Amino acid sequence: MNELLPGIFHWRVSHPDIHIEVGSYYVSSLNPAFLIDPLVPQEGIDWFRERPAPKHIYLTNRLHDRHCQRFIEAFDVTVWCHEAGLHEFADGSPNVTAFRHGDELPGGVRALEVGVLCPEETALLLPTAGGVLAIGDAIINEDGELGFVPDTLIGDDPPAIKRGLKAALLRICEQETFDHLLFAHGDPIIAGGREALRTFCQS
């Protein structure tokens, strides 16, 4: 468990289905505390009982539901998923709530449209520490280099999808203020994240 910024924690564990390490986040610097795309960390779910209990889970896309059910059972959290991805929760869980791009979620978190990769792909803008942008599968940070998931995972027309993702993320860079980047896949960028993302999108 790594505290990236005051009240923003990051951890990586192996995903039980795809068997690669993925990133999850816990934010206690905003009220109420929440999780982003969480798997249970190696420290176990009791780690959160010693801190402000998470009240919400925010998903950057529907496939990042991961260990949501375990956090529902432990903390009765509300899971927020973009309305286009609600079919992933066809069991009708009462703890799942829909949002739309442009909505402000509890804690002042804003759901920004990325789309392109899938209709519900969302970037989350956290109003803390000068602005923190959490990105799901739109781009990854591998070995210090921004890039995309493999073409085999990106859709029927990878070049067009990559252009669309760059355009969507560049629009966010131009319209929003933030300094840090959080990734579902790869190491976070603390300080200089907006310029790093802008440079990548313009390449």
Keywords:
203 residues; alpha/beta; Metallo-beta-lactamase, Chain A; seven-stranded mixed beta sheet; five-stranded mixed beta sheet; 17% helix
Topology:
Blueprint lengths: L1 E4 L2 E7 L6 E7 L6 E3 L19 E3 L9 H8 L2 E5 L13 E4 L4 E2 L3 E5 L8 E5 L5 E4 L4 E3 L2 E3 L10 H18 L4 E4 L9 H9 L2
Parallel strand pairs: 4-5, 5-6, 6-7, 11-14
Antiparallel strand pairs: 1-2, 2-3, 3-4, 8-9, 9-10, 10-11, 12-13
Helix pairs in contact: 2-3
Structural class determined from secondary elements: alpha/beta
Strand-residue fraction? Answer: 25-35%
Total helical elements: 3
Major sheet? 7 strands, mixed
Describe this structure in words.
The protein has helices at 68-75, 158-175, 193-201, and strands spanning 2-5, 8-14, 21-27, 34-36, 56-58, 78-82, 96-99, 104-105, 109-113, 122-126, 132-135, 140-142, 145-147, 180-183. With 203 residues, the protein is an alpha/beta fold. The chain has a single domain (2-201), classed as Metallo-beta-lactamase, Chain A. The strands form 3 sheets. Strands 1-2-3-4-5-6-7 form a 7-stranded mixed β-sheet, with no helix packed on it. A hairpin with a 2-residue loop joins strand 1 and strand 2. The longest helix has 18 residues, at 158-175.
